[in-house]
Amino acid sequence: MAEALKSVRELIQATAAFFEKRGVDSARLNAERLLGHVLGLARIDLYLNHDRPLAPEEIDRYRELVRQRAAGVPLQTLLGETEFYGRVFQVERGVFIPRPETERLVEAAVRLLTGGTSSWLAPLALEIGCGTGAVACSLAAEIPRLRVHASEIDPLAAALARANARRLGVAARVEVHEGSWCEPFPPTLRGHAHLLVSNPPYVRTGDLPGLQREVAEHDPRAALDGGPDGLDAYRAIAREAPAWLMPGGWIALEIGEDQALDVTGLLQDAGFSSLTVKKDYCDRDRVVTGRL
Q1: Rounded Cα distance, 151 and 131, in Å
Q2: Which terminus of the chain, N or C, has less C-beta within 10 A?
Q3: Strand pairing report for 273-279 and 285-291
Q4: Among 29-38, 49-58, 116-125, which stretch is predicted with the lowest mean pLDDT?
Q5: Is 199 assigned a catalytic role?
Q6: Percent of the chain with pLDDT over 90
Q7: Residue 262 burial by Cβ neighbours in a 10 Å radius (0-12, 13-18, 19+)
Q8: 27: helix, coil or strand?
Q9: Run of H or E residues at 38
Q10: Is the pLDDT of residue 217 over 70?
């Protein structure tokens, strides 16, 4: 990108080659998304304008994004948004970026709330640690009669969750409370929730240094670190959840791929039954569900 002007096609080709050398996954897709972001064009429109020259200020802005992406800054952070469960969510630096595998948690929760529960005319769901609101907002969007109360300890993430709820038109049914675990939920909700859902931190502390660079350096540690054995959050949830769920209420938790046995054991000890383990798109254990 040394010349003052380059075409869309040339920039994509040059950037994809550069990303491949730097070990960036999906190199061409990253190049396309970043250039489309700078130019305000969808991917298909980039190719309809493949010979379009770029102004110097556009190249400067694009070059800076390419530099940051090559340095490990997540693509979603640079774009300011990410796709999740068919919807676009706003993200910012310093917040946890929703992962595709967490869509399985939403799928499981939707089934629990809608399958054979027609008597639940206005179900209530609680989410612990909602981050930017991907799960809470997706559930509310998928189930129009659902009310969701979500907790989030990080003020920035909580603000983004509220903003995402407004953008997706579900703010009237998604309430975000700042605080840890179940502590910020209104006491009047105790014993009335039909579902408690969470994607808690589950990485073992000793495994954090081995995570992908863009995860280890850019996701908040509090959203990753599950303690020495990765189970600290599950112990807290198993301890607190029964007080908030109605009799027959459900729990749905995302887990690490080798944690199914431990998490189901914790839930069983807490009084949950009908425990099941669901796999993600790569056939790894990903979600545990149970009924109180």
Answers
A1: 9
A2: N
A3: antiparallel
A4: 116-125
A5: yes
A6: 86
A7: middle
A8: helix
A9: helix 27-39
A10: yes
SS3 category, 287: strand
pLDDT on residue 63: 95
Q: What are phi and psi of 84, to 5 degrees?
A: -150, 125
The reported pLDDT for the residue numbered 116 is 61
Q: Is the model's pLDDT at 2 over the cut of 60?
A: no
Q: Catalytic pick from 74, 98, 123, 200?
A: 200
Q: How far apart are CA 75 and CA 211, in angstroms?
A: 17
The one-letter amino acid code at 287 reads V
3-state secondary structure of 151: strand
* Mean pLDDT across 202-223: 93
In this prediction, residue 55 carries a pLDDT of 86
Find out whether 182 and 236 touch, Cβ atoms under 8 Å.
Answer: no
Q: How many CB atoms lie within 10 A of CB 60?
A: 12
Contact 64, 37 (CB under 8 A): no
- List the structure tokens of 254: 């995302």
Catalytic residue of the set 19, 96, 185, 272: 96
Q: Looking at this protein, which amino acid is placed at residue 183?
A: E
Residues 6+ positions from 270 with CB-CB distance below 8 Å = 238, 239, 241, 242
Residues 12 and 28: their CA atoms lie apart, in Å, by 7
Out of 30, 199, 201, 272, the active site residue is 199
User: With contact defined as beta carbons under 8 Å apart, do 100 and 76 qualify?
Assistant: no
Strand 285-291 versus strand 245-254 pairing type: antiparallel
